[in-house]
Amino acid sequence: MVKSLTVNLSRSQRIPENLGPYQQGIRRPFSHSRNMFRIAQDFEKIQASRPEFNHDAQVTYTKPPNPEWKQGDGANDGGESLKKNHLEIDPYEKGRPSSSNYKLLISGIVPRPIALISTRSKDGKTTNLAPFSYSQVINHDPPLFVVGLVGSLEKAKDTLRNLHETGEGVINIISEHFVEAANATSINAPYGISEWEISGLHQAPCSTVQAARVKESILSIEGKVVELKEFESRASPGKKTGVLVTIEGTRFWVREDAINEDRSIVDLEVLRPIGRLGGITYGRTTEVLELPRPF
Ligand SMILES: Cc1cc2nc3c(=O)[nH]c(=O)nc-3n(C[C@H](O)[C@H](O)[C@H](O)COP(=O)(O)O)c2cc1C
């Protein structure tokens, strides 16, 4: 049965019309579709009107915006950006909900890599898989990765609970060929219910951790938790609202057709990474440019 509810999203004045319905911030009725996805009622229609996914898109290199740029030239827009004004936003200004900060940050700090994290429960009986885009590599010696989990250790997401209790997990990088399956793992399944079956993705063994890696993933990193830090809300002092987990990579798994001979470079054409943009938008990386480093 289709259930319907209304979600009141705040309207931003400067959102371009060509963005998806979530980013347009329009008040829209939502429905639970036949399967597990909560979508705007007219989203299926919008989706159907869009061009097909271009499976043949190759990674192309273009020139930089200003190939003639020289030291001191500044921006390449002829000074246009200097004519624009900025709005100052205090994240805690009166009446501003924290959801506005969430939406601003996830739509403005883009694209973000997505760590599809695989973990196992301490008793080894259950497995878990979920995506996290507050994630990044922050060092290579040792290889260090950070993941931000919304919530607290007390009311931990399953991934956090497992990372905390077992001290290990696997970061799988999301590629175009399993973006739908990876997205499906974000379902809030009760602890112990595995997102592996929901997604249809396959497990492959790791060497130094008990959790499985995603076999479909071009690049996976198994690792051990080296640090866990809880943060407190400013809006509700005393309430823990975020946990930073630092993971040290102990093994890299790269699909053999994606790595060069000396096993140092991952081929973007094979990796075809998916980045997270604002709302429910994902991005692919098919047009790139190169700039030599200054010396
Ligand atoms: C693309 C994407 C990125 C996400 N990034 C984060 C994130 O960085 N931090 C977070 O706490 N939740 C994030 N989520 C939501 C979690 O995936 C979601 O809460 C999930 O149910 C957690 O699963 P778990 O309880 O099995 O760990 C993201 C969801 C999606 C679809």
UniProtKB/TrEMBL annotation:
* Record-linked SMART domains: Flavin_Reduct
Which part of the chain is the Flavin reductase like domain?
107-267
Give the residues annotated as coiled coil: none
Q: Which InterPro entries match?
A: Flavin_Rdtase-like_dom, Split_barrel_FMN-bd
Mention any Pfam family matching this sequence.
Answer: Flavin_Reduct
Family recorded in the similarity comment:
Belongs to the flavoredoxin family.
- Name the chain's protein: Flavin reductase like domain-containing protein
Say which species the protein is native to.
Monascus purpureus
